[in-house]
Amino acid sequence: MEALSSFPLELTGPEVPMVRFMNVRKTYGDFVVLDNLNLDIAPGEMVTVIGPSGSGKTTVLRMLMTLETINGGVIYVDGKPLTHMPKNGVLVPADAKYLRKARSSIGMCFQHFNLFPHMTALENCMEGPVQVLGLSRREAKERAEELLSMVGMIEKKDQHPARLSGGQQQRVAIARALAMRPKVMLFDEVTSALDPEVIGEVTNVIQDLVTKHNLTMLMVTHQMGFARDISDRICFFYGGKIEEQDTPEELFANPKSKRTQQFLSAVKAAD
Amino acid sequence: MHWDWQFTAEILPRLLWATLNTLMAAGLGYAIAAVLGLVFAIAQRTPFRPLTVTVRELVEFLRSTPLVLQIFFVYYVGPEYGVSLSPWVAGMIAIGLHYAAYLSEVYRGGIESVPKGQWEACTAINLTTAQTYRRIILPQALPLSVAGMGNYLISIFKDTPMLSVIGVAELMQAATAIGGQNYRYLEPYTIVGVVFLVISLFSAASIRGFEAWIRRKLGMY
Predict the structure, then answer these.
(1) pLDDT of A14-66, one tens digit each?
(2) How many CB pairs under 8 A join A and B?
């Protein structure tokens, strides 16, 4: 990544998006995962990414969490560059120190929960606030207990992850991410590894977040019904590009692109 | 020649005393190796290439040359560069370095078996690299390393007789000295064998117990 003189050092104006992908490109060797991605997410908006596997949807979330570096373009969060930092009036690739500060407004939940197995549910939720935010153990415990209550896991707070079901682990993982008070939450196929009967307990928690909190959210899911119910906007990815995006009502009822139509009918047939 | 119980009783105190030296040599050498091995393992995972390459080559060198050569090197070559060490210190350094190379591989295996998702979760809650290792990765990697570390504890113990080549008065050297003075080798060397066997068996059992305990303690049943 070279210094990028054509990109603004920060986003200004009346409607600064919470997240902006600007001409973002991601490749693995010769394979282009995402090509010239442009996507804005408004503050408080819930955007869901759908699409066939290999279409680059998870990569979008991973780039935003800085788990993947990008090969072109810039990602902005809350008006400030995330993947780059200003230096001598231009944007240069962010160094580790800058990245650490920049990603503090982003939280993420993973398909396989990734809870820390050697810590209890409560300790999982206290780790970041104590180590990173510098909260006292008492403050962090209060915050963690409040969040575990919110996700319905307070009774299991002293259990290790191995003793919890998948749905329970995912709810703890959501609490752990929220304990860092992110502005943007990312949900990467958070129900894909769950047994069908516990999917509801996780989607209910996310539904709750959408209605009661003003979080900006970006979600990848295969649960089309869930996506339709809670999203403000759906992006259909195909071959590393946004093939089509619209409100859920419009996109599910009147998909315009042929590929979107094919994908949605294939998914419907599978249900 | 048959077994002389009276002679056995006479030499036993001296051999048990030497056993203490052997245990101390193994323990100190192991402590050095355990700490230094972790440093080697983590150094090989930094993004700073000159460091990773240097440490990798050093580990390769230490593992590919005989321990006895390394002991001689530290003890006899050191003074030519103004580093004069007592046999004890030279021996500890050599054995510690040698086993640090092996233990670094054990740690590396342990660290690599921690799932990638754990690192990603650490990034997601924004832990520093140091916090990630200290709080999340090592507590999971070490229980996975305990079995391998235990094997090397027993090996280091069995390698302590090599220190006799530079005159450290460990068990093997004491037995040889007793044999030479009395022209009887059966009893001293048999006792040495029994002592090594007992300590090795005891160590192996303790390591298994420790491994089970640490897994339970970390909630990894």
Answers:
(1) 889 999 999 999 999 889 999 999 999 999 999 999 999 888 899 999 999 99
(2) 68
Q: Does A130 touch chain B (CB under 8 A)?
A: no
- Asked whether the beta carbons of residue B220 and residue A162 sit closer than 8 angstroms, the reply is yes
Q: Report the number of distinct structural domains present in chain B.
A: 1
| Sheet strand arrangement including A19-28 | A31-41, A19-28, A72-77, A80-81
Domain boundaries, position B87:
5-217
Of B118, B125, B135, Cβ closest to residue A180: B125
CATH code where residue B147 lies: 1.10.3720.10
Does ipTM exceed 0.90? Answer: yes
Tell me whether residues A177 and B124 touch, CB distance under 8 A.
yes
Distance CA A60, CA A56 (A): 7
Structure confidence by residue, pLDDT tens digits, B156-202: 989 998 988 888 888 888 899 999 898 988 899 999 999 999 999 99
Nearest CA in chain B to A176: B125
CA A102 to chain centre: 15
- Model pLDDT, residue B221: 54
| List of chain A residues whose C-beta atoms are within 8 Å of the C-beta of residue B124 | 65, 67, 106-108, 110, 114, 177
B167: region left, alpha or beta (phi > 0 left; psi from -120 to 50 alpha): left
Q: How far apart are CA A196 and CA A202, in angstroms?
A: 11
Report all structural domains of chain A as residue ranges with CATH numbers, in order of start: 19-110+182-270 (3.40.50.300)
| Cα–Cα dist A82/A61, whole Å | 13
Residues of A in contact with B120 (CB under 8 A): 65, 67, 110, 114
Contact A112 B118 (CB under 8 A): no
